[in-house]
Every structure is written in structure tokens, then in C-alpha cells.
């Protein structure tokens, strides 16, 4: 098996949550920024609350990343091996200890250093067109059985290995993966694997800090655009504007969608104000 080339080390960095200086207009911008950049206020639900799942007995690996989550925005990927948390080496910690450590960190979320450990394995089918293994589960998929003496067995695939890619395409669901594997029965099948008993690599890792600034800049731009629209629609209604920002501030802190859905129509009840509700949705 060959590890993916060009492995990179990434940082899952925190987003500033402090309010900027005390001027009212800056306070309004801060509310909008937190509305668009919001994430959990504590590490209590790490890692699930930040959109990813881990497993392992030292080292630990990322098994799944939810699209659109803060982990996804930071560039974390299934198959990443967790090397550091807040600069401390955690490669020997099992998943339970790692979760406990992360949840006790003061920074939200704690920065983590990772490196990709997906292995690309090419398998040729036997004379009957079979590869000799079966899969189970969903997000992530795992190898369930391997037939002794089969092409999969000869290539070192073992029960319990995680299958994260099929022919270079990330896979999460069993039905889709099985269909792609069947379509490869007349040629070479390439699997992106994460072995549960993988040996540590001594090869050097090229360090690269992946910034999330581009994602944050896009969200800040949305916040600024919304702020301009609020001034345009509610410019002569300061009391209504203040109520809107109060509701958004409350939502950014508590993430209660039902509160947002109830409160905004009560405040923005005129037809000319409906566009603001649409923009928030």
C-alpha cells in the first residue's frame, strides 16, 4: 500500500468571539459577524458539535466530516491523522482520552494538527470478476470480510479497514460504493483506505498551515452586505433595527432556530421588510 503523496499538516483554528470596541455601529457589525461565523460556544460537544468524528487507539483518525461544518471549512478530511492539539503531541492518545483533552481546552475550538494517512490500493479482479471483500456500515464504510487468497487479501486489505474513497471519489454510503466497485469488475479498482493497524511512517511530513481566512472573508462580506441592506430598509426606524440586532445576537449565542423563526416576523411585519427575513434565511 502507498500513502497518498503530498500529505499536509493543517490547523483547525478558532474563530474570535470577543466583541470589538464599544461603539454602537461596531457592535452591530460584530453581531452580524458572529451570526455568520457562529460555532459552538464551548468544546463540550467536541468533535461532533464541530462537524467531524474520530476513532483510534493512538494515533486517532478523522473518520467523517460534515459538509458545511466548521471542520469542513477548516479543511479537515476523512483519513487525517491527529498529531497535535494546541501544539501538544497527542499521537499516542486513544480517542476517549483525546476527546477529554480537547473538551478541556480553553480555546474554542482547540487548534489541531493533522496529516493525511489515506493509502491508495490498486486491486485487479480475479478470473470471475471478484475482488474478494465485502463492505459494511455508512459514513464511514468498513471492510467486513476478506476472502483468504483473494486479490483483496493479497493486497493486504483486512477486516476493519476503513474505505474512504473508491476510484478517487470520496464515498460515504454503502449502496453507492458497492455500485462503483461492481462497475470496476472488468478493470483495476482503486481504494482509498485507512488501515486500523497501520504502521507509523518515518517519512517527513511537509508542514502547511491551511488558512480558513477565505471562508471567513466570504462570510464577513455577507454580513456587511446584510448590514447595508438593514440600513437601507430600516434606516429611519432605529428602534426596529435595534430589535433585529438583538434577536440576531441572541440567535448567535444560543443557535435556537425556532426562536429566530418566531421573533423576526414579529419585528419585521411590514411588506417592505420581508426581504430582510428572506436574506437571513
Automatic annotation (TrEMBL):
Superkingdom to which the source organism belongs: Eukaryota
GO cellular component, one term: plasma membrane
CDD domains referenced in this protein's UniProt entry, alphabetically: PDZ1_L-delphilin-like
Sequence segments annotated as region (Disordered): 1-27
All residue ranges annotated as the PDZ domain in the record: 36-104, 120-195
Bias (Basic residues) ranges: 1-14
SMART domains in the record: PDZ
Full protein name: PDZ domain-containing protein
Amino acid at each position: 500500500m502507498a500513502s497518498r503523496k503530498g500529505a499536509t499538516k493543517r490547523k483547525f483554528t478558532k474563530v474570535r468571539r470577543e466583541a470589538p470596541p464599544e461603539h454602537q455601529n461596531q457592535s452591530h457589525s460584530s453581531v452580524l459577524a458572529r451570526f455568520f461565523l457562529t460555532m459552538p460556544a464551548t468544546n463540550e460537544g467536541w468533535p461532533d458539535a464541530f462537524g467531524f468524528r474520530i476513532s483510534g487507539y493512538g494515533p486517532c483518525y478523522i473518520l467523517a466530516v460534515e459538509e458545511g461544518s466548521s471542520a469542513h471549512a477548516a479543511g479537515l478530511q476523512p483519513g487525517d491523522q491527529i498529531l497535535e492539539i494546541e501544539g501538544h503531541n497527542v499521537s499516542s492518545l486513544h480517542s476517549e482520552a483525546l476527546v477529554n483533552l480537547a473538551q478541556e481546552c480553553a480555546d474554542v475550538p482547540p487548534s489541531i494538527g493533522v496529516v493525511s494517512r489515506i493509502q491508495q490500493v490498486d486491486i485487479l479482479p480475479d478470473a470471475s470478476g471478484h475482488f474478494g471483500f465485502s463492505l459494511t456500515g455508512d459514513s464511514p464504510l468498513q471492510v467486513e470480510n476478506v476472502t483468504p487468497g483473494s486479490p483483496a487479501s493479497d493486497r493486504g486489505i483486512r477486516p476493519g479497514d476503513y474505505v474512504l474513497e473508491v476510484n478517487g471519489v470520496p464515498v460515504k454510503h454503502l449502496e453507492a460504493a458497492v455500485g462503483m466497485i461492481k462497475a470496476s469488475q472488468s478493470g483495476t479498482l482503486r481504494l482509498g483506505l485507512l488501515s486500523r493497524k497501520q504502521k507509523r511512517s518515518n517519512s517527513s511530513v511537509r508542514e502547511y498551515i491551511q488558512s480558513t481566512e477565505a471562508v471567513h472573508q466570504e462570510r464577513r462580506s455577507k454580513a456587511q452586505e446584510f448590514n447595508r441592506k438593514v440600513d437601507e430598509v430600516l434606516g429611519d426606524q432605529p428602534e426596529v433595527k435595534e430589535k433585529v440586532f438583538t434577536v440576531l445576537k441572541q440567535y448567535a449565542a444560543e443557535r435556537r432556530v425556532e426562536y429566530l423563526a418566531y421573533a423576526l416576523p414579529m419585528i419585521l411585519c411590514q411588506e417592505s421588510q420581508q426581504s430582510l427575513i428572506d436574506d437571513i434565511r
